[in-house]
Write a structure and sequence with these properties.
globular, single chain, alpha+beta, four-stranded antiparallel beta sheet, 295 residues, binds 6-diazenyl-5-OXO-L-norleucine
Length: 295
């Protein structure tokens, strides 16, 4: 389950997960060059679609059904070449028939297995830096989440087109990705993070680390992350990302650049025995002053 438009994260997550569905990613191994390249190309394509199609559904028709269909996502990966970067200029948004960095994330669970995944944002640090007199809260600067004009990047480097253009009464596209993963119809993972455009990739990699690479939530969150958002055409990596792997990626044709932390992901994992909740494991990202507590 993910959030609907105008949060892009739910749909992007579905796209990315389905693009790796038929690949043996667990066998490739965590942070193998094969897995990192595959996930990079998946991220690139999902962000190309985000720029073209996603926006407030009260104003634009977002082809959600097509973008999340297995058939479309299989075709989306037709030009994927293992071991070779596909330049973003050749990766256009998918062929869809329209038929058919300030932010806070909280993951919460109680002893009965009720869960909440919530992300809230002012957009930039202190939003528009304006406090409402007498009310004591800050105004956001969310207008930056609209695409001001085609091809012009916002403060997170994201580009967009008509689908996310400014219009009276329209809501801007968000990357927020509060997510609940169900297993046997019961909440299994509660995930989310701040981080502007790096939000969907942080959640994607955390989930793949747990579900495919069998990592503990702690490792899944704290292991180095990487990020590709179609444009700019570069693979951004955290400073503790392996130098050897970075060199391998460069050999494949990726422009690899170091950047600061990617996300601050909070995960709760719930273990069930039948209908009974056995244990709850909560992890707060090492990247910030985040913490996990129980009451
Ligand atoms: O909704 C969005 O996509 C942005 N307003 C989020 C900004 C953000 O995560 C900044 N925090 N690091």
């Amino acid at each position: 389950m993910g959030m609907p438009m105008p949060r892009s994260g739910g749909l992007s997550m579905e796209e990315m997960m389905k693009m790796i569905e038929d690949k043996e990613i667990a066998k490739m191994g965590f942070h193998s060059k094969e897995a990192v390249q595959l996930m990079t190309e998946v991220e690139r394509r999902a962000y190309a679609d985000r720029a073209e199609f996603m926006g407030d559904q009260d104003f634009v028709k977002v082809p959600v059904k097509t973008l999340s269909s297995a058939k479309y996502l299989k075709s989306r990966m037709n030009d994927f070449i293992p071991g070779k970067a596909t330049p973003s200029e050749t990766v256009q948004p998918g062929n869809v028939n329209p038929e058919s960095e300030e932010t806070t994330h909280l993951s919460v669970a109680d002893q009965y297995g009720n869960v909440v995944s919530v992300t809230t944002t002012l957009n930039g640090g202190y939003g528009s830096k304006t406090v409402v007199g007498g009310a004591g809260f800050l105004m956001n600067n969310e207008m930056d989440d609209f695409s001001v004009k085609p091809g012009v990047a916002n403060m997170y480097g994201a580009v967009g087109k008509e689908a996310n253009a400014i219009q009276a009464g329209k809501r801007m596209l968000s990357s927020m990705t509060p997510t609940v993963v169900l297993k046997d119809n019961k909440p299994f993972l509660v995930v989310g993070t701040p981080g502007g455009t790096t939000i969907p990739t942080s959640v994607f990699q955390t989930l793949v680390n747990i579900l495919e690479f069998g990592q503990s939530p702690l490792d899944a969150v704290n292991n180095p992350k990487f990020h590709h958002q179609w444009l700019p055409d570069q693979l951004m990596v955290e400073k503790d990302f392996s130098a050897e792997l970075k060199a391998e990626m460069e050999k494949m044709g990726y422009k690899v650049v170091n950047r600061g932390q990617i996300g601050r992901t909070e995960v709760i994992k719930l273990d069930w025995k039948g209908k009974k909740l056995q244990s709850i494991e909560a992890v707060a990202d090492k990247r910030g002053d985040d913490h996990a507590s129980a009451y």
